[in-house]
Amino acid sequence: MEAAVWVIILPLLTAFFLGISKLYFKRIFFYLVTGSAIIYLYILIIVITHSYPPKVYSIGDWGLLGINVMVDPFSGLFLLMIAILFLPFIIFSMKYNKFLKHDYFIFAYLMVAGISGMVLTTDLFNLYVFMEVSTLSSCALSLYKKTDRGIEGTFKYLIMSTLGSFFILLATILTYYLTGTLNMAEIPLAFEDIPFKIKSTMMTLFVFGYAIKIGLIPLHAWLPDAYEDSPIPYNVLSSGLVLKSAVYALIRVLYIMFGIDFLDESGMLTIGVFWGVITFLIAHCLAFQQSNLNRLLAYSSIAQIAYIMIGLFVGTEAGLIAGSFHILNHAIMKGTLFLVVGIFSYSLNAVEKKDIKGLGYKFPILSFTFVVASLAIVGLPPFNGFMSKWLIVEAALEAGFVYAAFFILVGTFLSLTYYLKVIVTLYTKNEEELLIEEPSLSLKLPTFFLGSLCIVFGMVPSLPLNLITKIPTFLLDNGDYIRILLGG
Amino acid sequence: MEIAYVAVIILFCLGIYTIITKKNLIKIVFGVTIVESSLILLLMLVGYKPDGTAPILDKEYEIVVDPIPQALALTTVVIGGSVTAVMLVMVIKIHRRYRTLNIDEIRKLRG
């Protein structure tokens, strides 16, 4: 079978065999998890390198009636993010979690299967199913510590994201009712005859549903609560992949199904940019008040995703490139920050801001990694965050959204203040003597790997941009996408 | 037929209203299941044809209902069932720890 299909099947199979090994063969657990992750990395690399020109894989030779899987550069970007984050996540979690490892990895593999299914599928209902798979296993992971706060936060998360799914499902059913198909290539062709008002209503339902999942500002309340007491390696995948996959689905639905002309005509692009500006301004202000590092990083995630929204919604080629580049960069930067906080919480149980006082002298290299990643996320040169933020500002100016470009600069100063507060705490001398053992290599290696990528992608941005510059071709003009899908 | 669509709208709004206003966790889970069943009803209505029979490929049956929404409804039932199960698990856990189901008293998070 084709490699792209295995991207979805392999994690599902691994989750299944992990369940069996929990019952009968406990000894092969370690080899199963790491071996499967390495094979998965290999398959991902093969699929990513073949993502241009886009290809359609039809399962079971049913043609358009059956299930089709399509790899184009935009989904290739998301597969690249899985490839970068997943193996470090596995290595880190092996050491970080002290009990019940089987369940944890079963859900982690299920979550990745859901996300890769979301980015590869071409069917609207499959998109919904895969989204539910990833959301449910994401909830199970966030519940994993079984503390009071963890359960409370996860309950909020599940209620809110189910509410979002209902709106998406309603819009999906109405789409089927209006067009008689769920294939993403046939929907836009059938959509041409549908009146403007009905199309706008459908778009509102989709946008509202996905906005809950993404956590845009008035709908964000679940996000910091879900992050507060969850296992920290899970937060890396959650902010890096789960939130982003909702962004992916939103962009895919809007750009392919409705088309850029309709978005422009109905004013959705302006609304998206405006919503993004409001979101990051408020999220930065809220992040400033937090004392818990997980909550602070969660609010920072909301703000960064608002930047991504601005980039993707200015509706030009430059904007799409900038937004996609920021998707990748944010996953790497936020991953580094969370992993460093994870090491602090593993060796010292420190998740509050006051607990990390003076740790800059105890863990010099780790703290330096934290500083690098936080400066990157603020957007200072020469790190990767600067590159993509600069591209977003440039694209916003070019498309005429001058206020967005101005407020991004304001937001940079706001984010500088709260990250500086953390860094200053990190390097304040602490009188207490702390007995700390050096964290083991399996914790440090993933952190340094992601931290070094922050610098590498800042110095040599052409590495990922080779893939990213091909994205707008198949999003701005949905004709190409449709032709490939119908012809394949 | 129209009356069935009105029922879908009423059930949907009722469910959303329940989720937003009720303070009891069990009632919130009820709200979620109400919304879900309204959507399943909508799926059934989308595929329905008057006097239609089961979708069997045979000359005897001329008017058949659309089979795709039925398959979708089946999937939605499964997903909804698992979501409800996970929610109820959490409600049980919360009740064991806090000894209450009132959402105003469950506040260890500062958010």
CATH fold descriptor of chain B: Helix Hairpins
* Major sheet: arrangement of strands of chain A: 1-2
Summarize the amount of helix of chain B as a percent range: 55-70%
Give the count of helical stretches of chain B: 3
Unreliable runs of chain B: none
Feature tags:
heterodimer; A: 488 residues; mainly alpha; 21 helices; globular; B: 111 residues; Helix Hairpins; 68% helix; elongated
Structure notes:
- The complex is a heterodimer of chains A (488) and B (111).
- In chain A, helix 5 runs antiparallel to helix 10 (232-266), helix 6 packs antiparallel against helix 8 and helix 10 (232-266) packs antiparallel against helix 13.
- In chain A, strand 1 and strand 2 form a beta hairpin.
- Chain A has 21 helices and two strands.
- Chain A has helices at residues 3-23, 29-49, 73-96, 101-120, 124-142, 148-179, 186-191, 196-214, 222-228, 232-266, 268-289, 293-313, 317-348, 359-362, 364-378, 384-399, 402-426, 441-459, 462-468, 471-476, 478-487, and strands at residues 55-59, 67-71.
- Chain A has a two-stranded antiparallel sheet with strand order 1-2.
- Chain A is 78% helix and 2% strand.
- Chain A has 488 residues and is mostly helical.
- Chain A has one domain.
- Chain A is globular.
- The model of chain A has no long low-confidence stretch (mean pLDDT 89).
- Chain B has 111 residues and is mostly helical.
- Chain B has a single domain (2-98), classed as Helix Hairpins.
- Chain B has helices at residues 2-21, 25-47, 67-98.
- Chain B is elongated.
- The mean pLDDT of chain B is 88.
- Chain A: Its main location: membrane.
- Chain A: Belongs to the CPA3 antiporters (TC 2.A.63) subunit D family.
- Chain A: InterPro entries: CPA3_Na-H_Antiporter_D, ND/Mrp_TM.
- Chain A: The chain crosses the membrane at residues 6-25, 30-53, 73-92, 104-121, 127-145, 157-178, 198-222, 234-255, 267-289, 296-315, 327-348, 360-380, 400-420.
- Chain A: Residues 122-415 form the NADH:quinone oxidoreductase/Mrp antiporter transmembrane domain.
- Chain B: It holds the Pfam family Oxidored_q2.
